[in-house]
């Protein structure tokens, strides 16, 4: 049986799960783990082995402990006597695995034994998905986005890589809408100038428009090209989105020369799920 506690740390919920390791047996009260060792050793040797396990010889401080130890030992040791802890090192103790009766014995006698240890603690964070500061979180993709300005496509991708990200891939109209909102935030629309309308994303081709790829390697499953696009094979190898509501091309993809510097570039990376 495991016990789970929760602690709030910042925005994260830590799950502290305690459990006995494989091969050990939980005590009836759930607070300890027993290891039953069938190899006969004398009392001192048994104590040393238990210390290697990170514990000590199991004790039977009261009748309930005796019954607990004895009952659990049978499956591992059979109906035998085995060493348990003694408060007096000159009077070593054995417990009968059948009856639970505790008796004294010669400490040099070689017998099976039982070790006890605390349950191991496993810590798992259960943080909700979130982003570093200066990045924006989009729940449908569980990803983080950030805008940079006035870059060529290669420079934009390099900038994203420096942040452990890529130029954004797009997989739904929802994501197009979000990228558009992000790229035009606090920007005055200038429909008289085509360049400010453009936003780099991670779309590119290396085979004269025959196929298009995303720099993050994700599946190309949503390409909403503007009418007549892509065009100029071999010349316009990088993709961008029209992100200002100036004409029919609004929120549509277009391919242009990768060396053009455009107003916005949107980076994307997976959201954080740990502290």
TrEMBL record:
Question: In this protein, which residues make up the domain named C-type lectin?
Answer: 144-260
- Does the record's keyword annotation contain Signal? yes
Stretch forming the signal peptide: 1-19
Organism superkingdom: Eukaryota
Q: Does the keyword Signal apply?
A: yes
Keywords, ordered alphabetically: Signal
An example of a Pfam family matching this protein is Lectin_C
SMART domains of this UniProt entry?
A: CLECT
Name used for this protein in its record = C-type lectin domain-containing protein
| Origin species | Panagrellus redivivus (Microworm)
